[in-house]
């Protein structure tokens, strides 16, 4: 399978708002938008067996928040795509932690024929 | 008696008790100079440490709340007195200067109580001489202080597994949807491959629950071990099979009845209507419910769709 993916990456970075040192850091984040033009020569279903790479914009958002006693992380990838992922995690330093996640995994066998099952 | 309990006599006793019973982070240790002194020469290392979780003063028991650099590297007074000379007992996480057990022991001083390190002493990694610093770095701001994200970190050593991940049929590991640690307890566990499940099947059923049953007509090798037919990390045959259809079935089903003699192109491709027993999904064209069936009568017992 030959595939060519033309990516023009554009990163919009919200530089860390706090100081670089961990104990002084309060909020940091980043946003990334990547326009993509995809040209697949070969099996399209195999190329996208577990993912959703297509023409459009691929996005990424990341946030990290540190407080005196707690922390919070949020991450989102490929928003609106069939392989989109969201993760939220946090907790209290040395006491508890939690994480919530949503992850879509497509599984393409074929995009052009009918399966028996 | 009262004349001995004057303030002048009690004061030395209090000083003695303070020195003996107060915690180390308050009392200070012998030969400890403090992180700021280290920073004067090792600024890059100190800054990267400060950005890491170890440098976070909000975490109880973190090096930042104890003796900073010297929590792991040992007291630095002699090192400072000799103007940074070596050979004064500073512990360095170097393969040349310390063996794996000594390096891991430094980390386990604080991390031995962690739940996921309960079986570290049983782990294959420890036995093979892997130490904490092979995968983690103290001076980092990455998640869990990993030196690289998964699966690249694991594949650095497990090159056979990396090759399997790149085969045509594979779990979505290289796509980033499954991590090595979703199935393996990297810090140690029961069994040679550190599986997170009680058995291979129990692990696979966590995602592939429809294969668990119970079925009216179970297929015995399925209940026995998924790896009888499948390769977990990747295969060049569809569905992660360890050999192609129909050979994977014929490893067991080689009796004289259907399917009896080996299929060749002579039996399967002659005439205008070639048989389906040699191509496409082969046996699964008819025996679709191969993991078990609840179908009635022979339809179920033969796993026919």
Write the layout of secondary structure elements.
The complex is a heterodimer of chains A (117) and B (305).
Chain A: E1 2-7, E2 10-12, E3 27-41, H1 44-47, E4 56-66, E5 70-77, E6 85-92, E7 96-103
Antiparallel strand pairs in A: 1-3, 2-3, 3-4, 4-5, 5-6, 6-7
Chain B: H1 7-21, H2 24-27, H3 35-41, H4 43-51, H5 70-73, H6 77-81, H7 100-111, H8 124-127, H9 132-135, H10 152-155, H11 159-165, H12 180-183, H13 200-205, E1 217-218, H14 220-224, H15 247-250, H16 265-268, E2 292-293, H17 297-301
Antiparallel strand pairs in B: 1-2
Helix pairs in contact in B: 3-4
Summarize this structure as a short list of keywords or feature phrases.
heterodimer; A: 117 residues; mainly beta; elongated; B: 305 residues; two-stranded antiparallel ribbon; 17 helices
User: How many strands, which pairing sense, and closed or not: the largest β-sheet of chain A?
Assistant: 7 strands, antiparallel
The number of strands of chain B is 2
pLDDT under 50 segments of chain B (min length 5)?
22-27
Distance between the termini of chain B: 99 Å
| Distance linking N and C termini of chain A | 25 Å
- How would you describe the shape of chain A? elongated
Give the overall average pLDDT of chain B: 82
Report on the architecture of this protein.
The complex is a heterodimer of chains A (117) and B (305). Chain A has 1 helix and 7 strands, in the order βββαββββ. With 117 residues, chain A is mainly beta. Chain A has one domain (2-103). The longest helix of chain A has 4 residues, at 44-47. Chain B has 305 residues and is mainly alpha-helical. Chain B is built from 17 helices and 2 strands. Chain B has helices at 7-21, 24-27, 35-41, 43-51, 70-73, 77-81, 100-111, 124-127, 132-135, 152-155, 159-165, 180-183, 200-205, 220-224, 247-250, 265-268, 297-301, and strands at residues 217-218, 292-293. In chain B, helix 3 (35-41) crosses helix 4. Chain B starts with 6 loop residues before the first helix and ends with a helix. Mean pLDDT of chain B is 82; it is low at 22-27. The A-B interface holds A 20-23, 46, 49-51, 66-69, 83, 93-94, 103, 105, 116-117 and B 47, 50-53, 55-61, 64, 141, 168, 172, 175, 177, 281, 285, 288, 305.
